[in-house]
Structures
1.
Amino acid sequence: MGIKMKQIPLEIKIEADWTLLGHVEIHGRPEQGHRAATRFYYHEDYLLENMDALDHRNYRALSLGTPLNFGLKSYPTWHPYLLDILPNGAARQAWQKRLGIERDGPSHDLDVLYNAPITPPGNVRVQMENRKQLTTIDHPGFSKNEIIDRGMSFIDYAEQMGAMVSGFSGAGGMAPKFLLVKDKKGQWHGDQAIEEKSIAEYYIVKY
């Protein structure tokens, strides 16, 4: 893999639209992974559009510890938000297998971060150029019984059946968890696999 990235763009969802929120700059060697120093700054256009919320820590900010302002904030390791959405446990193991990563370690953190958490819980995510392509895959979905019967192997089964699985494992932890949505016809899909107007309910399924 070996993604060489020093700047990670983040986007935020306010009401119905996703917009560029800011950037996390990585100041360290790629092999350091999450141990590399970082700093975060909000995108100027986003700040100008939210001047009424400067220094606030509400839903328009990246996090409680990162209020809206024009400054740079430095961290000795990755920004806490990136650490929070970096897959771990069963989700990380599944993504490393999918990405062809044989040995675990910090040097693969950036590859896993950029490819796996397409739809982490919350209203902030890593901005990806190929997201639109991933979310336009047409699939009829799965029944509740298929999800239950397949158990922990469901994500592999879904991929074999041609479903978009990038959003399934945004929830971390050692136990396998899938982020799923149920459409208005009662069929189940991975998070972000279908348009929001077609979604009836949201779920975290844990085995």
2.
Amino acid sequence: MIMPLKKLLDDILYSDIPIIFLTAKASLDDVVKGFEYGGIDYVTKPFQKKELFIRVKTHLQNSVVQESIKEQLTYLLKEYKKLKKRAFQQTKMAAVGGMLSSISHQWKQPLSVISISTADAKIKELFKDTPDIGVIHNLEIIEQQIKFMVSTMDDFKNFFK
């Protein structure tokens, strides 16, 4: 008798069906075995119809509640995974932002030195008796490129804040 019950509970189609034992076996060992074999309730004969219906109704309501809880848990688990993924992405973006900030800081000092050297060369060239316009033009291009690089680094740094 127990083998068909085990097969029933092992079958995915029937595994969620609540099993209520209705039997004349009333010893404590029999009751314990009934629960060990997967029963959710144990009713002995003679039984009251009203009591049996109430037990069945209660177990069916519990099954509905359990199913609702499973659905909510599945939904919450999906949401948790989405939030975890988003937090991971934000952490990566913050790390990239920090790295860019560090690179920007490290580049600005050499660019400042180049900028000052360029300005100094430009001033010296302008105060010569015959300044070389080509040199001055090249120095202005270098200054423009330095400003562009600094501006680009600031834009990247601000983007990741």
3.
Amino acid sequence: MNLQLAATIVLVSGLLTYFLTKILIKVLRRFGWLVEDAHKPNRPLIPRPAGPALIVSILVGEAILYYSTYDVRIVALSSTLIIAGLIGLVDDVKRLKGYYKPLLLILASIPILVLGAYVPQPVFPIYGKSVRLFIVYPLLVLAAIPVTANTINTIDVFNGVVSSFILIASLPLLAAFALQGDWIMFTATLPLIASNAVFYLFHRYPSKIFPGDSGTLALGALYGALAICGRAEVVGVIALLPAILNSFFFLSSVKRIIEHREVKERPVKILQDFKLVASRSRDAPVTLTRMILAKGPLDEIEIARAITILATVAAVLAVVTALLTW
């Protein structure tokens, strides 16, 4: 592993995220690209989206790695990031319908297939043996990127949650790549981690900026692409379990693909003291937040802390899986 290259990539991606986010906050405020922070008194207006800053910062880090390795997988990762980010940016501007995004996000899967940046033999957990899926695997890739992108998108509900979640979930991927000795994919994960770590400083409670769909879809798609290109699919799935379960609960309760803003009966309600309480309505969708609130009201910070704990537990389980596999 080239430590100097890794350090350069972390430094560049981190610094770019810091300065571009600061610039974007001013630009978005100037042009009125603001949304209400609904869980706070007086509903303050927060700039959105921060996606462009995250995408550019990560892309620069990946470009540095590519021109040092010329590994085609880096091109696939970058292409997936760009396509998913553009789809998210369109959604930030025009508000796509719920079922449009999963369909469009299939396009973000195509670079992985076209460039052959995958191995259709996922490694079986614990035993470390691969399973041949030459026909089925490309179809799984087409489905995987929309799933990871939308999964990360749906977990973006409170200040700091999505940025901290991605940061925690990325660590098991690093462990898996290190155990495999795949230092290129290890280094390719660093721009994602560095950018999220710095962005968290702006996104944590109380948020100064929101990532928007351009941010969440791009980050989720890149995460899925890293797991696929680095042959760490199972590790990635386990690390994302809280977010995956959140999506599963929501979809199974509403029984169709819709946006959260289209839900008529909200899963949680805001009390006068701005604590949140689970809805008692049978028509309200089931979500991870609603389940966390089953025991009683909590404030935003407490809910975010609970989700972070779940993410940490999932990450530990994912690391254990990696250790038992390789």
4.
Amino acid sequence: MSWYNTLGEHGDIVLSTRVRLARNLEDFPFPVRLDRDGKKQVCECVKAALSDYTETELDFIDMETLSRSDAVSLAEKHLISPEFAYDATGRALLQSDEEEVSIMLCEEDHIRIQVILPGLSQKEAFEKAEKIDKAIEEKLNYAFSEKLGYLTQCPTNLGTGMRASVMLHLPALVRKGAMRRLSATVAKLGLTLRGCYSEGVEAAGDVFLLSNQVTLGISEEAALQNLGSIAKQIIAEEKQARAVVISDSEFIDKIYRAKGILQSAYKLTSKELVGLTSLVLLGAEQKIIDVPMQELASLNILLM
């Protein structure tokens, strides 16, 4: 069963947690300097390094063999980046059956290990990614500097090479007008809070990404602890805000109207769909309406 079909810890607010590790091989230029054959060679090296890895079963997918629609589907499920789906030349993907683990080969870096788990699970996601990371490093030499840490094509990833993020459903805080304040506050703590696939604090479906900004001069453990701590504070604020908004009869009416439109509408724009789904998901989370929350949460993730 795919990760997005399961509710995790704080699943009424936290849709998912993602940890991504960026790595490059010492013996090859960065992917931007590699031709197709060079990228293919990197892919084969990583494939061989993980051939006897047994912690997670990984399927090797040559991206050049996928149809455009299949590649776009992977991007829509957040398993690969849109750019990776657009240009398949020399690239490959290692993916688990449950779609928790996806490893992009020759995207911006040689290796992008990504683990996505439901709910607030930053430690578990990192541990799963770290096991794969160590398995590769046992067979291949990473580009590493004692001063700068893991060397990456983009300087903003130097150091740990780790990006960790939590996907949050925050409809009550949005209606309270609290997002700009929260975004400014977390920025002072080395994190960013932005709308999914949006600029700034505007968010489709009231879904936001809270992620670490600093990768140099901080350990993975400290970054993950900071992310989890701030996420829990935002969760607490969202719960307090929900207690206020669901006491408003006009807002409850909006939830029922959203449910009715989703059940009966013949045609909706994507913006309308994510907005209505957000309201119905909140109604399900607060037990105002009787609809399967897990299915709605999965839909909300796939719509992002």
